[in-house]
Design goal:
InterPro entries: NAD(P)-bd_dom_sf (IPR036291), SDR_fam (IPR002347). Keywords: NADP, Oxidoreductase. Pfam families: adh_short (PF00106). GO terms for molecular function: oxidoreductase activity. Belongs to the short-chain dehydrogenases/reductases (SDR) family. By secondary structure, the protein is an alpha/beta fold. It has one domain (about 30-330): 3-Layer(aba) Sandwich (Rossmann fold), CATH 3.40.50. The chain has 9 helices and 8 strands. An 8-stranded mixed sheet has the order 3-2-1-4-5-6-7-8, with helices on both faces. Helix 2 links the parallel strand 1 and strand 2 (about 65-70). Helix 6 (about 215-240) crosses helix 9. The relative contact order is 0.16.
Length: about 325
């Protein structure tokens, strides 16, 4: 078995990493968002972190019908109440309706029932933001189906969710102007730490090598490389032409619940080095709405077009990842 190989960073990639610490102010903001009245939006993991801020911004600045797909009913209903209070105060919009559907992306068996519930309530879907994720959980953590937890939650689960939503999403896109219907895959600059070609095919779960502190970011990076490759590949696999935009992004270096598994010292540093989670919503909604976003593209904080690592954009590498994800999710379709 060969050891994972991580390509050396180019000058452009180092520049991208440093940009995360000093990104400047967003230029594409809420006053430029479309009203999205009559349209339906799903945000996964919208009950916490940057997802929470994204839902709040959508609730305050658009008229879209909003759904949060997340794991904890109790926490999400409480988050919805808090979002409603903040929207009433900050945007002067009382009683903003936000809907919840329970799904656990780390358990593929929960995803089809969630989609069925959504389809029983809606006849269209205009925008989906694959925001939910986990970062650097305890080494050896697994999804319900036995995949490394980050791969299972960040990549495989969203792949199944998108597959099951594709029919209604594609049908809805035919009613919209080109580029209105979008899929936003929330990746990370950590994709630069992923193995060559995105995945460590000899050991996808990283069970055969001892994981050091440095390696933890490589394992997380593998799952985020998968998101970039999903974004790059979706349109090519679905033959929708220019009707739909599928793109990926790094929301920014944000102080969110993603840091719950890091050390106390790392949390201390996060308070000094990372940006407020609200700023990440500007990146996600840049990808959702900006006319500057192209299909298959990659954006960084806080709404800047950028470029993902070259080896993750090659059709043969993307096809290998896509075929694996299809095979992993076929039994749950």
């Amino acid at each position: 078995m060969s050891a994972p190989v991580v390509p050396a960073r180019t000058c452009q990639q180092w520049k991208q990493l440093f940009h995360g610490f000093f990104p400047g102010k967003p230029t594409f903001k809420e006053d430029q968002y479309p009203s999205f009245e009559g349209k339906v939006v799903i945000v996964t993991g919208g009950n916490t972190g940057v997802g929470y801020e994204t839902v709040k911004s959508l609730a305050g600045s658009t008229k879209a019908k909003l759904y949060i797909f997340s794991r904890s009913e109790e926490k999400t209903l409480e988050a919805i109440k808090q979002i409603q209070l903040e929207v009433a105060k900050e945007y002067n919009i009382p009683n903003r309706e936000i809907h919840f559907i329970k799904v656990d992306l780390s358990d593929l068996e929960t995803i089809k029932p969630a989609v069925q519930k959504f389809l029983s309530q809606e006849s269209r879907l205009d925008l989906i933001i694959h925001n939910a994720g986990v970062m650097t959980p305890p080494v050896g953590s697994k999804s319900k189906q036995g995949y490394e937890l980050q791969l299972g939650t960040n990549t495989i689960g969203p792949h199944l969710l998108q597959r099951l939503l594709d029919p209604i999403f594609i049908e809805t896109s035919k009613k919209n102007a080109p580029g209105v219907s979008r899929i936003v895959w929330v990746a990370s600059s950590a994709h630069q730490s992923a193995p060559l070609g995105g995945f460590h095919w000899d050991d996808l779960n990283f069970e055969k090598i001892k994981i050091s502190k440095t390696d933890e970011m490589m394992v997380y990076g593998q799952s985020k490389a998968g998101n970039i490759m999903q974004a790059k590949t979706w349109t090519r696999k679905h033959n929708t032409g220019s009707q739909i935009i599928s793109s990926s992004l790094c929301p920014g270096y944000l102080n969110t619940d993603l840091q719950r598994h890091v050390s106390s010292f790392e949390k201390f540093l996060a308070n000094w080095l990372l940006h407020p989670r609200r700023m990440g919503a500007y990146t996600e909604l840049f990808a959702a709405f900006s006319p500057d976003v192209k299909d298959g593209s990659y954006s960084i904080s806080f709404g800047i077009p950028s470029q993902a690592r070259d080896d993750l954009l090659q059709d043969d590498a993307c096809d290998k990842v896509w075929n694996f994800l299809d095979e992993a999710t076929d039994p749950y379709m």
